[in-house]
Each structure stands twice: as structure tokens, then as C-alpha cells.
Amino acid sequence: MSKYKIAWLPGDGVGNDVMDCAKIILDTIGLDAEYIHGDVGWEFWKKEGNPLPDRTIKILKETDCCLFGAITSKPKDEAAKELAPELQDKGYVYSSPIVGLRQLLNLHTNMRPCKAFEGNPLNYRDDIDLIVFRENTQGLYAGVEFHPVPKEVFNALMVHPKMKKFDGVPLDDLAISTRIFTRKGCQSIIRQAFEYAKKHNRKTVTVIEKPNVIRETSGLMIREARKIAEEYPGIELWETNVDAMCMWLVKNPQKYDVLLSSNMFGDIISDLSAQLVGGLGFAASGNIGDNYALFEPTHGSAPKYAGMYKVNPMAMLLSVKLMLDWLGEKKHASNLDKAIAQVIKEGLVKTYDLGGNNTTLEVAEGVAKKFDTLS
Ligand code: IPM
Ligand code: MG
Fold it and tell me: 222 CB contacts (<8 Å, ≥6 apart)?
């Protein structure tokens, strides 16, 4: 029996191209693992009315962790039009499988490192090394939404004086998306960020919210952050509003260490941060729970490039690095990081986004060769 069982979910579009790269690296490492393929994504939405079939959930429950490619997400009306004719008008409603997986498996912490690799021509600056901790299951992405708004929901909200201005609006002309935070959820993401800072000798944790306007949810996050920060005397807590943070990240990204935010703000801030170090082609992520984790590049499925082996696989290779770290394979993780850094620095094999004309697979092979020289 292998040491690890890893769920293998390529998903949509270029997900498959970059997963092939992950395989090249994992085979080079010789990780003692069994990889179990799971169906997920648009194809299964169209054919089965479910982008995340139960058989896939079963695989996830029987594995140690998951490597995930990419997913196509569309708004529900557009998605409904693409269903197979026999499934049309049967009440199937599309929702993002990756958001669903994070909730189903309680992968409460999303960590997204954004480090500028030396020699990357796309770096905004070369001295950026930050990491975003994004709360991953609550807030605006928890999916508690209404349209039309049920009468009882409307009535219950009427206890709030600010609801008066919506009185009389037809319930079908009203849409509500809730932003729900729990104290425990806030504490958990804050603690993860501080623990990371402590372990990696980072000096600051910046909590990014908007408590001057979103007083209750953002307020809860900030208050809890202040309390927890007291337990970490060597690490400073910085508090920044999300709008200002976008400005500061463009102005002085090198000043930041660990960033911490709720689900939606973290989603936005992590794309901005990714662009500072070369774009989504370099953006890896780990969705981490108490006993399970799912690793994925944060780029989308880029359908127009699917199967062309054109896209940059670095985000996937860096996600593999995060997975190796999480599994406790520290030496392999650190060598993979070094191999990636050296390949980028040399600039001999590179995909089109970096001005090169190598394929996705050639870049992975380049990293694999480098890896071999290090181990
Ligand atoms: C991400 C993506 C997802 C998200 C989408 C695909 C649902 O943008 O992982 O950042 O919003 O979380
Ligand atoms: Mg995103």
C-alpha cells in the first residue's frame, strides 16, 4: 500500500494540462502515492446536472488530500442554458464546485503565497514576498442568498431600522446575499495567519477589512484580531481597509508580510497580489482544513487554451510544493521550490506569458531536471 492516497481532480480546460505537469514532478520525486482520479467540472454539470458528483465526494473522503486543476464557473442562468436537453427545466441549479468543496470538507483556511522569483520579467518588483490568508467557508461566499426574497425573510429583516427604505419593494425585485461571520471562523483564520507568521519569522500580520462601514462582520474580525495579536508579542498587527489596501499593495507591496482577510476580500486581494509577482500563472493555493487539504492553482480553466499545453504550469507546480509541505515532505518541498526558482532565474525554458515559446510540459520537464540535480 502506498504511503499517501491523493485525489486527482483535473477539472476543466487547462486544468488537465497543468495536472500533467504535476504528475511529471511527482513521478520525478518518486512520491510513494496512489493517485485516484475524480470527475468534477463543467462536463459533469452539462451531462449530469451536477459538477461535483457524489462519487467524487466519496473519493475525497477516502484520500489524504486532493490536487485540483481548474474549474469553469458561470452565473446560474448561463449555466442552466448549457444543460443537456433532457435535464433542462428540471430544477438543476449550478453552483461552483470549488466553493462547494471548501464548505463540504470544511477547508476553512485558504493560503496563497505571492513571492517574486528572481528573474521573473513579470514581477512588479523583485522584493515582494507576501502570503494571503483568506477565510474560506463563510462570509459572502457561504451561499446564503435570496431572490426572490421569501416574505418571512423580509419580515424578519424588518426589525432593522435601515430596512425601512426597502419596504414596499416587490419581493421579486429584491435580491439579498448575506455576509455571515462566526467568532470561531474569525479566530481560526486569524490564528492560522499568526501561527504562520511565527513559524516563518514574519514581522507583521495585516488584517484587511472595512469596519468603518461593515461594522458588524468586519468589526468582529478586527476585534478578534486585536485579542489574538496579544498572544504574539513579536508580531505587529496592522489594520487596513480593503480599498486602501489595494492602493498600498500597488504602492508598497514589499512592506507586507502576512495578509489576512475574510472570504470575498481575500479573493480580491489575492488576485491583486498574484499580479504583483507575475500573474495567475504563479499563483498557488492551499485550501486547508483540520485533517484534509486541497491544493490548486488559483487561475481559471482558460477554455481557449485547453489541451494546447500553452499555459504557465508554475502555479500548479507551486501548489504541488504546498501539498508536499502539508504532507510533511519538507525536503522535497524545499527542493521543488529551489528547482522552480532556478528555472525562472535561468529563463531558458518559459511559456508565452514570460516571452518564451516552450510548452507547459517542457517547463515542467525543465523543473523536473533541475529537481534531479538537487536531490
Ligand atoms: C479563487 C476563485 C474562486 C473563488 C472561483 C472560481 C469560485 O476565484 O479560488 O480565488 O472565488 O474562490
Ligand atoms: Mg479568485
Answer: 207, 209, 211, 239
